[in-house]
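User: Structure with pyridoxal-5'-phosphate, tokens only please.
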Amino acid sequence: MAKIPHRLYLTEEQIPSQWYNLRADMKELPDPLINPATGKPVVAEDLYPVFCEELARQELDNTTRYVDIPGEIMDMYQIYRPSPLCRAYSLEKALGTPAKIYYKFEGNNTSGSHKLNSAIAQAYYAKEQGLTSVTTETGAGQWGTALAEACSYFHLPLTVFMVKVSYQQKPFRKAVMETFGAEVIASPSDTTRVGRKILEDNPSTGGSLGCAISEAVEKAVSTPGSRYVLGSVLNQVLLHQSIIGQEARKAMDILGEYPDVVIGCAGGGSNLGGLIGPYMQDKLLGKASPRIVAVEPASCPSLTRGRYAYDYCDTGRITPMARMYTLGCGFIPSSNHAGGLRYHGMSPILSKLYHDGYMEAVSVEQTKVFEAAVLFAKNETILPAPESAHAIRAAVDEALRCKETGEAKTILFGLTGTGYFDMKAYENYMHQSMSDYVPTDEELQKGFDSLPSIPGIQ
Ligand SMILES: *Cc1c(COP(=O)(O)O)cnc(C)c1O
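Assistant:
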């Protein structure tokens, strides 16, 4: 048999032309979003003031299995896709493992991450609706960058609320967003009511994704012709990210490979939800049962230590409530370097799949993550994003277990992006000034105390 190539690129024609909606195959659906004003399930009209209409419909569409990707989105996908499916020969050798390790690399665009896959779709639908601007938040900066790229492509003005610690740690991220024409504001800021309130309560806060979301939503609803867009967590984002899994599946099929285990890092769950699509579908339909593993930071352990409960998606409690694994909307994580994984909740779709036993979750500590990141970089020549390195850690651990048992498992993981803007964190790791912060039960309890109570529901 011919040797499997280091990197397999599908042809442009082979790029999937439809997104896959996991909900259509779920035996039980995630619980509906709740409108905090009425205590009733959200209907599309409730979302229109905040989200653009087509995206609101996608958010609530539990039945359309495959959604055609509009031509203008395909045109932009073809600028930077397909992304390669890579075989980690060198890493396998370094580990001395009989396992076969594959990874799907999404870092080949300026945002350095998979986020562009959804940013393009969201900017496109906003433009289609005739909106005149959009707002968003960004944590580590990848989402803001991706959206700035997409908005500049579709000529749509954008304001980004950037979590203050990242704004300070990653000035060049801001510069990239500005290069693409976006306005960038450090969050919490004094430009919104909710930002001023958060600053008043906690003047020295470095911010969090939850705070930044509140500010971006407030700005969108108070600006005519503006809407808010979100880069993770939501059902629509998992839908757009399904391009990752569909491509990965096609490429694996061409190679005659099927993973025993699929691994991805999980912040809000969008890359993982996208990557696992076709394999989770097999599992839901009883055709195969690959293990599916979410990897999260020990400092922000929503799946492994959170509650499965209704919660707000933001700190300011202005979004609808979703039933998900959450640390509580009042949870503000430590300034862990994996900025993109510092979110209190988790995709309601993944939360439900995890709750129903279709998925596993592990949490990993930061220094172990960077150890794996450096090993990976030296062997595979890609400098991974710290977020992505959580998945690398779990893949390496799986491969090391195979070494002990002699099993030649096939491992597929999502390499979501590159880490060029995270060199401060790499430096801290190399100078041994990185710590592994793990919240105590008491600290987590404070977050749980912030969970909303909803008459008749929880
Ligand atoms: C945002 C981000 C993540 C985490 O987000 P998900 O929605 O959980 O996928 C992971 N890796 C990178 C590189 C990111 O930018």
